[in-house]
Structure formats: structure tokens, C-alpha cells
UniProtKB/TrEMBL annotation:
This protein's record includes keyword Mitochondrion: no
GO molecular function: quinone reductase (NADPH) activity; zinc ion binding
Organism encoding this protein: Luteitalea pratensis
Keyword Nucleotidyltransferase in record: no
Domain of life: Bacteria
Residues annotated as domain Enoyl reductase (ER): 54-367
Pfam families, alphabetized: ADH_N (PF08240), ADH_zinc_N_2 (PF13602)
EC numbers on record: 1.6.5.5
Protein name as annotated: Quinone oxidoreductase 1
InterPro entries named among the record's database cross-references: ADH-like_N (IPR013154), ER (IPR020843), GroES-like_sf (IPR011032), NAD(P)-bd_dom_sf (IPR036291), Quin_OxRdtase/zeta-crystal_CS (IPR002364), YIM1/Zinc_Alcohol_DH_Fams (IPR050700)
Keywords linked to the UniProt accession: Membrane, Oxidoreductase, Transmembrane, Transmembrane helix
Length: 370
């Protein structure tokens, strides 16, 4: 009887919860994008904005209010930014399930870009780590703009003098995803065998170098045109997926970093040792699985976890100061370098996003500020 009562209450309450969730999402859809984009009440700046979901065609460069740093914040004049798959996911509003948070009909957040590098223009009264004129890099939503404000104790660090603004801007989401995926989630140790699926992209090019720095034996998976690139980054072996299927190997790897998510989980498990680790960090193009996207694969991972010896996980990178400092040191000493495919001026930021969507980018795509 207790079970029946619980089921009855669940059936009564669940629809109300769902209605509340969608009501909140609908309310968040009422953005004031047009008003903000044309704001000239205070000091203006240029920023990349989108008022509707869609292809990169919805992106426009508009005048918005220039931010003012609060007591613990830093104002950075952006010199370069980079684009990531998360950007075009947000712009397209796909997978659709994410619109419960980002707005059902229209985007609640209308600015894009995360990774940036630039020069400190102003600091809050309580900031001591940075001063005007410092060259910095880090991550903050809305980075595709002339200026960005960042909390001084969060995702912002000094840029090494030996690397360019473009190289520093390439780190952000991709670099920290690679570092945290290999070092933390993958727990890669010296001498282990690591497979990186999608080794020529933004995350993959960093991941190959990080795994080699740790001392792992690295195998990268990429297309024919990227074989030489991946090998030049230090990969011990390269699998050309147009000619060979990496899932035909059995118990060959201690860890698999999956940037693509294009092979069945059962096949991915087969290539791992009995105690191997599978880490999913990406997957799906702009037209793949529009309703749930990679969330279906994520659900399968968590349903599978209690029943298999191998460690199965996924994660979203945490943009934090400690790991950005790691990159500042590694890039400043030549341990890791950024692979940059193309650079676009700010006026062509939509074109940069379109190129990234194509899935053809080798390493990172950079947007430079005029």
C-alpha cells in the first residue's frame, strides 16, 4: 500500500514540477536583447550578440554597455578570443533539452565566447594580484567583446611574455578540458597507454601533449590529413579513422579520452583494460541528436557505472585559476603549445563560428580584436 501511495503522489506532483520548470524556462526566454544591444546610456563597447537561436547567421556585432569592474574584479581589454563547440551549442539552442535552462523560445543569455587574452585596463579597489597594463588570459562568458570583467580570484592569470595573445586565448575551455580529463578524471600515470579519440581538435591537440608530458604511451585518432600533425605533437601511434577502426583492438588501453562520442560505449569498453578508464568530454555536431544531444550517451554511462569494473565518466571543465597557472607555466617553458588553425578578425566572428561547426578545425580557431 505504501508503494501505491508513493506512486500516486508521484503521478500527482510530477506534472506540477514539469509545468513549473517549463514556466521558468518560458519566462527566461523573454530576453531584452534588442534593448541591451542598442544601449548607449553609458560608455559603449562592441560585443558579439544573438537575440534568437539559429545558425551563425543570427550573430551580430552590436553596441552594448562597457562593464565597470567592482571592488574584486578586473577589467580586461580583449586582444584575442577563441571559439568552442559550447558556443555554437548555445547559439543554436541544441540539444533542445538545454533550453529548459537557457530559454525555450529565445536565449536568456545573449553574449557568447569564453576564452580570452588581453591587457588589464582597470582593477577594483580590493584587487592586489593585478595592475593596469598586465597581460592576462582566462575564461569568462561573453569574451567575444572589446572588454570583459573577471573576478580577480577566479579564472584569470598572468600571460607569459614568451607566448602571444592568440596562443594564450587558445587555452580556456579546450586546454582545461584536456588537462582535467587526462590528469584528474583519467588519472593517467607514467607508462600507461592512452587513446585520444579526436586528437586533432582543440581539446585533442592539448591532450596529446599533456599525456606525453606525464609519460604515457599515446595513441591519437584522427583523419588522414591530420596524421602528421598529431604525430608532431608527440603521439607514439596514430590511427587514421578513415582506414582503421580503433575499437577493433581488445584490452589495449588504460584510458580513453573521447572527444567525439561517435562509437558505441560497448565498443569503447572493449578497447580498455579490465580496470581502464573511459572519459567523455565531447561529441555530436550541430545537426546530431538535436533533442538530447550527448545527454543520451551520458545517461548510458551513469546507468552502466554500477555494473562494470571499468571507470566510466564524463565532465565539463572547471575554469579555475590553479589550472590556468599550470598552463601559464607549461606554455611559458615550452612543455605545451597551442595549435592554431585559423585567425579571424572580430568583424568575421560569425565566420569563425561557422568554420568551427564544420568539424574541420585543426586545433583552435581564434578571433582577434580590431
Amino acid at each position: 500500500m505504501r508503494v501505491l501511495r508513493l506512486l500516486k503522489w508521484t503521478l500527482l506532483v510530477l506534472p506540477l514540477v514539469l509545468v513549473a520548470i517549463f514556466a521558468i524556462a518560458w519566462w527566461r526566454s523573454d530576453n531584452d536583447c534588442a534593448a541591451r544591444a542598442s544601449s548607449t546610456q553609458k560608455v559603449p563597447m562592441r560585443a558579439l550578440v544573438y537575440c534568437d537561436y539559429g545558425t551563425p547567421d543570427v550573430l551580430t556585432i552590436a553596441q552594448v554597455e562597457k562593464p565597470v569592474p567592482q571592488e574584486t574584479q578586473v577589467l580586461v581589454r580583449v586582444r584575442a578570443a577563441s571559439v568552442n563547440p559550447v558556443d555554437w551549442h548555445m547559439i543554436r539552442g541544441t540539444p533542445y533539452v538545454m533550453r529548459i535552462d537557457s530559454g525555450l523560445r529565445k536565449p536568456a543569455v545573449t553574449r557568447t565566447g569564453v576564452d580570452f587574452a588581453g591587457v588589464v585596463e582597470a582593477v577594483g579597489r580590493q584587487v592586489s594580484r593585478f595592475k593596469v597594463g598586465d597581460e592576462v588570459f582566462g575564461g569568462r562568458t561573453g569574451a567575444l567583446a572589446e572588454y570583459v570583467v573577471v573576478s580577480a580570484d577566479r579564472a584569470i592569470v598572468h600571460k607569459p611574455a614568451l607566448i602571444t595573445f592568440d596562443q594564450a586565448a587558445a587555452v580556456g575551455v579546450a586546454g582545461l578540458t584536456a588537462l582535467q580529463g587526462i590528469r584528474d578524471r583519467g588519472e593517467v600515470r607514467k607508462g600507461e597507454r592512452v587513446l585520444i579519440n579526436g586528437a586533432s581538435g582543440g581539446v585533442g591537440t592539448f591532450a596529446v601533449q599533456i599525456a606525453k608530458h606525464i609519460g604515457a604511451e599515446v595513441t591519437g585518432v584522427c583523419s588522414t590529413r591530420n596524421v602528421d600533425l598529431v604525430r608532431s605533437l608527440g603521439a607514439d601511434h596514430v590511427i587514421d579513422y578513415t582506414k582503421d577502426d580503433f575499437t577493433t583492438r581488445t584490452a589495449a588501453y588504460d584510458m580513453l579520452l573521447d572527444n567525439v562520442g561517435n562509437r558505441p560505449l560497448s565498443a569503447c569498453r572493449r578497447v580498455l583494460t579490465p580496470n581502464g578508464r573511459y572519459v567523455l568530454v565531447g561529441g555530436g555536431g550541430p545537426n546530431d541528436h538535436r533533442i538530447v544531444g550527448p545527454l543520451g550517451r551520458v545517461a548510458s554511462i551513469y546507468l552502466m557505472k554500477p555494473f562494470v569494473r571499468q571507470e566510466m565518466s564524463m565532465f565539463i571543465a572547471d575554469l579555475n585559476r590553479r589550472d590556468l597557472e599550470w598552463f601559464a607555466d607549461a606554455m611559458g617553458t615550452g612543455v605545451v603549445s597551442a595549435v592554431i588553425d585559423r585567425r579571424y578578425p572580430f568583424a568575421q566572428a560569425a565566420e569563425a563560428m561557422r568554420y568551427l561547426e564544420s568539424g574541420r578545425a585543426r586545433g583552435k580557431v581564434i578571433v582577434t580584436m580590431d
